[in-house]
Each structure stands twice: as C-alpha cells, then as structure tokens.
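Attaching the record inline, Q. Sequence:
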Amino acid sequence: MKNSKRKVCEVETNEKPLISIILPVFNTEKQLDRSIKSLINQTYKKIEIILIDDGSTDKSLDICLSFKQQDSRIVVIHQENSGVSSARNRGIEEAKGDFITFVDSDDWIDGNVCETFFDAYQKNNCDLFCYSAVYHQAKKNMVTFLFGDDIDLMNENQKKELHCKVMTPNAPWYSCNVSTRFTGSACGKFYKASVLKQNLLVFSTQTIISEDCLFNIYAIDYFERICFSKQVFYHYQISSNSAQNRYRPNSDRNFSVVIKQIQKWLKETNKNQQFIDSANCLFVHYLFGILKEDIFHRDNRLSWINRKNLLNQVLKMPEYSVALQSINRNYFSFPEKMLISLLKNRCINTIRLLFCII
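Structure, as predicted:
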C-alpha cells in the first residue's frame, strides 16, 4: 500500500498545480496597484488571482476592475462590507486552484515566490509551504524567519514548533525564535486547497481580531508534509493605521471569542503542556493588547475611573485571570514579567503610568 501511494504522489507532482491567490480588498486604493502588480508579475504563470472587494468606498473596486481587463487570470468579486474573514472565506469557496495563498492588499510579494513554491512541491509533494517575510516600517525594516534554515520536510518536532509559534513566537525550547507574529498570519503560506475544503477550514467571522492565528491553530493539525523556505518573499507594510497601532474598543470581547475556541481545541485534541504554555502565553499577550490598543490607547475618551473599572472587569474574567496564574514565566521577557506582576497585584495606577510613558 505504501509503495502504490508513493507512485501516485510522483504522478501528481508531474502536473503543474494551479495556484489561487486570494486578495481581500477594502479601501486600499493607494497601495492596491503595487499589490496586484506583484501578483500578475509572478514568474510562475499558472495562477488565478481572486480579488474580493469587501465593500470599499474609495476607488479600490475600480482599480480591481481595471486590472481584470488587462489580465484574464483575474477574478473580481464584490460584496457588501463583511470583514476580512468573510472575504477570505468567499475566496476559498470560489478558488479553483490546487493550492491557495493569501496576500493583504496593502502588502506585496516577490515575483518568484510561486515558482519557489512549485519547486518545493515538485521535490517534496508538500501540502503546506511556508516562507519568510520583511516588515517595512517608517524608520527600519525587520526580517522575520520562522526557522533558522530551509526545511525540505518538517519532522514532528519541527511541526510542533511551527504550530506553537502560531501562538507565541518565543519559547525556551524553540530551535529558532521569531521576531514577529508572522507565523500566525494566513499570509506567507501555500495551503493545499483540498485539505482546507475537505476539513471545512475557514476563518472565524465571530471575531475581527486574531482570526489568522485561530485559522492556523486549527489548520496545521491537518497538514502532513510541510516545507519551509528561509527566503524572504513577503513584504508586510506597517503604517500608522496598522492593526498594531489602531484603537480597538471592546477588544476584550473579540479576544474572549478566540480564547474560548483555542481552549476548546486544546481539550479536543489533547495537546501537551508545551501547547498549553504557548496558548497561555498568547492569552496574556491578548491582555497586553487590550491595555495598549483599548484601555490606554490615546483615542480612548473614557474617563480614568471608567477605564480603571473596565480593566478590573477584564482582570476578573476567567480567560485572563486563569492565564495569568498558569503561565510559564520563561516564555516572557523581563519587562513583560514585570507587567504580569503588576497585573496580578492589580497595581492599576502604576500600569497607567507605564503606558503614559510609553
């Protein structure tokens, strides 16, 4: 049986797979031209480009339609504004490709990334291919590697490391720490479409925060042959309006949705302590995000008393109180450990002072 299966794989790899590139679009007219051009200029030509306009109110849809007139491989779908998860799910539904990859409409990819994926697929018959990225910021660029070297096929330990990196990029047992949270992104990966569709793997529409992370936490369990290239192909644009800098009121509610689903997944899949530690680390970082992007954000107009009451309410929620008590402190930097101690002891005035300084 094993030999016959191997022969089938060899036949499959002789066929050039069709790659579906899914690009959700929402009000990114200034960056969209660069992003779409990076897709149509791929050296590997057997692709379809699915542009999902999610109810843009600027000229984004017009730009998409203009490119469609120039390239028959482009499919343009317009929908009412429903969020990036809904747009990506529509793309998965419409995709005809053997493999699916995602790009955000304010980012871009290098012209040889699809060809590099095909070479890895031809060599290893992989069902998931991951690669590296560079984060472009105003003052500096930062390259992020998921692993220290190329990996033809991940062994079980490497796969577990990849899976845990989706939740937390740094842990004492990793072979290579990651400088960003790009591992959790839906971008920078080629997914075998049949694996996604047969297992009903889609993005959660119940949250507008960390939907990528949740998707990959569920998805990686289903992929067996995973390859990694250390080469940098994805260009992630960080602007003043990026998610990391945006005011996100009521973010605790969205994070709670994600936490409960991850906790359910941990229980159902009977993950070991390393996964549990990584998940608790993620939950505490969600708490950090609530402080930075909501309660202490400069655009939060609530009075100090109301913000203080909100933080007390959040700290009483089991999602965060249990995580704070259960964390493996080795997963955190020294400043993070200090903040955790302040949160545990409800030193809210001191925490406020720290965020005012930051």
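The first helix runs from residue 2 to 13. The first strand starts at residue 19 and ends at 25.

More tomorrow.
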